[in-house]
């Protein structure tokens, strides 16, 4: 299926989008967080989705897990080294349609200066004209990465076995974007 009506350039609306993550904590629960400051854009070729592209930049210091002490620790060299590496970036290298409303977005993810390829399956959530006359689209996606692949290796063994923080991190993308004029 093609989407010729969607062809164009879009800017991610950070006030209506969320870029976050989920990590297992102490082997018993999940901790969710997000990045409060980010920007991104993408170009959609509705007739040939494989010609589309996307890029996102997250401000590392904007990490928010609703716990100031934990957020402070995540900004240190134990985790994201926010002073030395102030941004996390993703730049697409390939986009492939997957089913009627699915798109696999493959690209280069850079965390702590280490770049690795990742593929994020996205689902097209729809398109609408908002109350301000903007053409708006939505996409949701998630993927799992190993944080150790990006040099984020801090951990602590637990008395009962296992570790404090999982190596596998789920990245979550809830994107609302506005078509550029």
UniProtKB/TrEMBL annotation:
Pfam families: YceI. SUPFAM superfamilies: YceI-like (SSF101874). This is Polyisoprenoid-binding protein YceI. The lineage of its organism: Bacteria, Bacillati, Actinomycetota, Actinomycetes, Pseudonocardiales. It comes from the Bacteria. Belongs to the UPF0312 family. InterPro entries: Lipid/polyisoprenoid-bd_YceI (IPR007372), TTHA0802/YceI-like_sf (IPR036761). Residues 9-178 form the Lipid/polyisoprenoid-binding YceI-like domain. Transmembrane segments: none annotated.
